[in-house]
């Protein structure tokens, strides 16, 4: 009897040991483990399978350099987490509209870019998983607080910024020298004067801007004393009635309307152009090809110039300056994008691991600081020895600005930005007056926010 009881006890101990061994550890690779416990009467088999999870990551591209950097980081992540695979998808046009449409079709990616200007729409549509439900507070506290504001609603945070950029003035030192200019312009009026002088002395346009580009105009208004634009209800269209807004918006539209359209009508060299006027696809190309002397752009242009125009040397051939000042000082725009997690993802924990890897100190050190893509969104890298000098210089301008405006105008910033820019572009081309464009922009606010 005593032997029989001992045998039963021994089997119980062995079964408990097998069960416990299945709960400890948890490797990252796909494994199948079989353990057999034998007695005189039966064989018991336990099987554990850890399947590989695949997630989809969608973004737009700032060029081939950025795409290569992401592929490298994804490979490193998959090596560290072999049970998670990542498919990288690049959407080249109408990014946010396509992502929203993919939700309706039930094929939205697990993680995707969301620009600050579009974040309210994604949050209101329930498209974003609250990252505050996944991330530790200590992890969130690493980020610059002002970059988090566009992605909050109530007590929830719906995304963490992957990086950020600010507008600065890029100028060609050699074209400046040919035109007899020894320093960058200090004011917006001086910017236009410099553009004229450079065109007259060198035969090349002094400044390239985008047609439209409401967000590029905002620093002009704010630096001259206008409040930051915010459109939440139809009555907010009154922002455009501010005399400072009317004056500065008319000036900005006339940069191209007069500097290109009217100058060519008079048979003169234009002093302001858009990139396509000089055979360029965007401002980076126009500046890198040295077809224009000045552009206003963000940090994303820095790695592009380094990669695509290596003989056009920073410090020797070109340099960076803060945006010109208005009557009330200087202002600039800040741009940031989160890696938003799909609220309906089937793999929230695995997706968070990927986001955490890219956005944490290790990921930002590699992808942002060393690669020089933009500016890191977490604190502590300001004096990092691997920070590119061009980025360090733009960061050094921060004390010069009375305001850094994050790109968001209210709950419908994305659609408003596009429609504002269309009206501005039409006026720049001379298809309507600046006054007519301003009236249309007021109507856009009222129509978009009615009801």
From TrEMBL:
* Cited Gene3D superfamilies: Periplasmic binding protein-like II
UniProt entry keywords in alphabetical sequence: Signal, Transport
Query: Known SUPFAM superfamilies for this protein?
Result: Periplasmic binding protein-like II (SSF53850)
The yes or no answer to whether the keyword Transport is present is yes
Q: Where in the cell is it found?
A: Cell envelope
Q: Which Pfam families match?
A: SBP_bac_1
What is the protein's major site of localization?
other
Q: Does the keyword Transport apply?
A: yes
Q: Which CDD domains match?
A: PBP2_UgpB (cd14748)
Q: Which domain of life is it from?
A: Archaea
Q: What is this protein's record name?
A: MalE-like maltose/maltodextrin ABC transporter
Organism of origin: Palaeococcus pacificus DY20341
């Amino acid at each position: 009897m005593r032997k029989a009881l001992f045998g039963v006890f021994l089997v119980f101990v062995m079964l408990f040991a097998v069960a416990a061994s299945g709960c400890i550890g948890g490797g990252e690779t796909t494994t199948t483990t079989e353990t057999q416990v034998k007695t005189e009467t039966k064989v018991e088999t336990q099987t554990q399978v850890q399947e590989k999870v695949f997630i989809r990551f969608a973004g737009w591209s700032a060029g081939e350099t950025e795409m290569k950097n992401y592929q490298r980081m994804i490979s490193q992540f998959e090596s560290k987490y072999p049970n998670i695979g990542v498919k990288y998808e690049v959407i080249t046009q109408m990014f946010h509209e396509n992502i929203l449409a993919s939700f309706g079709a039930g094929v939205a990616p697990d993680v995707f870019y969301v620009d600050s200007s579009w974040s309210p729409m994604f949050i209101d549509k329930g498209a974003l998983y609250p990252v505050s439900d996944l991330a530790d507070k200590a992890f969130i506290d690493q980020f610059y607080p002002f970059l988090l504001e566009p992605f909050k609603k109530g007590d929830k945070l719906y995304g963490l910024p992957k990086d950020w950029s600010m507008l600065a003035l890029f100028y060609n030192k050699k074209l400046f020298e040919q035109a007899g200019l020894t320093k960058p312009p200090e004011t917006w009026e001086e910017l236009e004067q410099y553009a004229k002088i450079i065109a007259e002395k060198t035969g090349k346009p002094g400044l390239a801007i985008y047609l439209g580009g409401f967000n590029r105009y905002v620093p002009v208004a704010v630096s001259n004393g206008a409040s930051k634009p915010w459109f939440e209800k139809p009555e907010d269209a009154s922002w455009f009635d501010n005399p400072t807004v009317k004056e500065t918006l008319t000036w900005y539209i006339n940069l191209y309307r007069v500097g290109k359209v009217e100058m060519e009508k008079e048979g003169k060299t234009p002093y302001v152009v858009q990139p396509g006027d000089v055979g360029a696809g965007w401002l980076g190309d126009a500046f890198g090809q040295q077809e224009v002397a000045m552009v206003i752009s963000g940090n994303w242009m820095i790695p592009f110039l380094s990669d695509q125009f290596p003989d056009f040397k920073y410090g020797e051939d070109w340099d960076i300056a803060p945006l010109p000042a208005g009557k009330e000082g200087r202002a600039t725009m800040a741009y940031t994008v989160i890696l938003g997690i799909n609220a309906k993802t089937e793999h929230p924990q695995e997706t968070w691991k990927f986001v955490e890897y890219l956005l944490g100190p290790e990921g930002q050190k590699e992808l942002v600081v060393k690669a020089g893509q933009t500016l890191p969104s977490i604190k502590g890298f300001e004096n990092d020895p691997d920070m590119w000098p061009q980025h360090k210089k733009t960061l050094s301008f921060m004390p010069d600005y009375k305001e850094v405006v994050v790109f968001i105008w209210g709950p419908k910033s994305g659609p408003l930005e596009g429609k504002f820019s269309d009206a501005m572009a039409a006026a720049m081309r001379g298809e309507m007056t600046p006054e007519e464009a301003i009236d249309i922009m007021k109507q856009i606010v009222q129509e978009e926010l009615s009801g």
